[in-house]
Amino acid sequence: MRYAEDCKVLPVIAPVAFTTSVVESAYVNLAGMHWAEFHVAFGIMTSDTTDTVTLTVECSTAATSNATEVTLPFYYRLTSAVLSDTHGAITSATTTGVAINATDDAKMVLISVNPDLIEGHLTDGQWIRLVATPSAAVASGVISAVFYGEPRYPQNVIPSAT
Known about the structure:
Jelly Rolls, globular
């Protein structure tokens, strides 16, 4: 049996209700990771159709906020609604992130980060986190996120990423 030996799976945001407050994931250590992804699930968002939640990826030199954070560019893909298996195009996001519209609720955003690019944005950066920033008038919503990491050297007992 080969049970996820080539993938580090780590819940980083438990399902949580939000309004206008920023939601930050736990930090994940990318040392030894070949590739990194966040799978971000949105529940139903109640607001007017102009409201958004901006997703960014931050990198730090430590596992806690320490004023070294910089935002990273990434690639993302928006899924369709529940029980539909179509996906949007793979799209690049700059360091300003990607805005998810209230009309995209009940969908997932797949965010892909290349750890090799971090050094060009933050020397000694190896910790990343996901940040969700709702616009000012979001009435309510639900978000959760899971980190998927591809270790450089897969093995039965995958080293800790926390």
